[in-house]
Amino acid sequence: MNKLIIGILMIVSLIGCGQKTEVENTTKKVKKLYVGTNAEYKPYEYIENEKLVGFDIEFMEELAKNLEYEIEWKNMSFDGLLPALQTKKIDMVIAGMTPTEERKKAVDFTDTYYNSAQAILVNKDTYGIESLNDLKGKTVGVQLGTIQETMANDIEGVEIKRYNSFTGAILELNNKKVDAVIVGEVVANNYLENNQKLKLAALLEDKQDGSAIAMNKGNEKLISELNEEIKKMKESGKYQELINKYFGG
């Protein structure tokens, strides 16, 4: 009788262990990242058919998938991204953001994942603007909080008009309320494809540090993991696939 009872208890114990493993597997906690972006910067990030798309979006989704994270996107104004990050409303930022020395004082960045020159756009009937120095005495439109705003701040004698989006700046340029707009090259190319009134006045030497993902300080482990995945994506060809898709190679 004792042997029978012991045998039954052993069977029940084994069944119980199997059930526990199954429950643990089915209730595995999903790792989630709240990622901030500004979807007004085509082809980096933009809205198409009510869906968030673009190079940064697919790039970040691929990184997250490889690290077994699920992303919840938070679309907001560009100048609100770092404040949202610092107040922990989001976990990271990807928005074609340049890791400037000033920004590095407040947050950390991954390795650079893309480099782009800057461009000056003007109306087709505007002449004599071929460099930043030529903007002296002019009215220049920029997006608030961007590297282009920083560049404009360094130009002596320029009047700066700041907008919540580059779309607003381009609209003002179309209406000749500003003389020029400074914007990233690939974004400028996108605007030129869809706007016959504008032209490229100048491409500026890229003295900045490209685009990187921003995170709060103290996340060295995750930043290291992201850097490793960025490297793997470039080696695998997936990165170039996205470059070709959104930037034309």
UniProtKB/TrEMBL annotation:
Q: Which family does it belong to?
A: Belongs to the bacterial solute-binding protein 3 family.
Coiled-coil residues are none
Protein name as catalogued: Basic amino acid ABC transporter substrate-binding protein
Give the species: Psychrilyobacter piezotolerans
> Where is this gene product found?
Cell envelope
User: InterPro entries recorded for this chain?
Assistant: Iontro_rcpt_C, SBP_3_CS, Solute-binding_3/MltF_N
> What residue ranges are annotated as transmembrane?
none
* Biological classification of the source: Bacteria, Fusobacteriati, Fusobacteriota, Fusobacteriia, Fusobacteriales
Report the residue ranges that make up the Solute-binding protein family 3/N-terminal domain in this protein. 32-249
Instruction: Describe the location of the Ionotropic glutamate receptor C-terminal domain by residue ranges.
Output: 32-249
Which keywords fit this entry according to its UniProt record? Signal
